[in-house]
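Thread amino acids onto this structure.
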């Protein structure tokens, strides 16, 4: 289906808006994926805050021109699905998880922070825990020294209390 000039400009402006808000872009080839599988991928992406788009590569190149995702413009050939996410790891997680179960989806490249990510880079980004998990781990690390100190102080207080209890009956006998 051919788009007229105004439709192309609308697509470019939509994708430019996505790229402006996104932290991560993952590009994957979807040749041979069934409609049912693509629907599953879209549902998983939507639930994780990832925007999936099948775009004409020339329009995608124009849309990311001047953004941090311009570094992957040379990878934009063939039938590709573009995954944008505001969360740094969400797009990589969704695409990598789906690619594990469906060998037809082939990760091509990605971009994060103005740097190109190869297939392994996208998989490494996908292996990073989510923001909530990282914050919980950080909080646990911060609480650890405090809770250890509290346990040591409680043990010392308990020992002193036991020592005072043993000394008290001896004083009572002597009186």
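Threaded sequence (175 positions):
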């Amino acid at each position: 289906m051919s788009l007229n000039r105004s439709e192309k400009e609308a697509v470019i402006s939509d994708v430019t808006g996505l790229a402006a808000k996104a932290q991560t872009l993952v590009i994957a080839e979807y040749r041979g994926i069934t409609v049912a599988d693509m629907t599953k991928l879209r549902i998983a992406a939507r639930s994780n805050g990832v925007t999936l788009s099948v775009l004409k590569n020339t329009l995608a190149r124009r849309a990311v021109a001047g953004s941090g995702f311009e570094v992957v413009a040379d990878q934009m050939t063939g039938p590709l699905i573009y995954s944008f996410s505001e969360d740094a790891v969400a797009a990589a997680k969704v695409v990598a998880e789906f690619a594990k179960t469906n060998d037809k989806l082939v990760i091509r490249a990605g971009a994060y922070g103005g740097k190109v990510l190869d297939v392994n880079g996208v998989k490494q980004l996908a292996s990073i825990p989510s923001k909530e998990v990282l914050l919980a781990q950080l909080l646990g690390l911060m609480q650890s020294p405090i809770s250890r100190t509290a346990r040591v102080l409680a043990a010392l207080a308990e020992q002193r209390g036991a020592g005072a209890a043993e000394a008290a009956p001896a004083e009572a006998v002597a009186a």
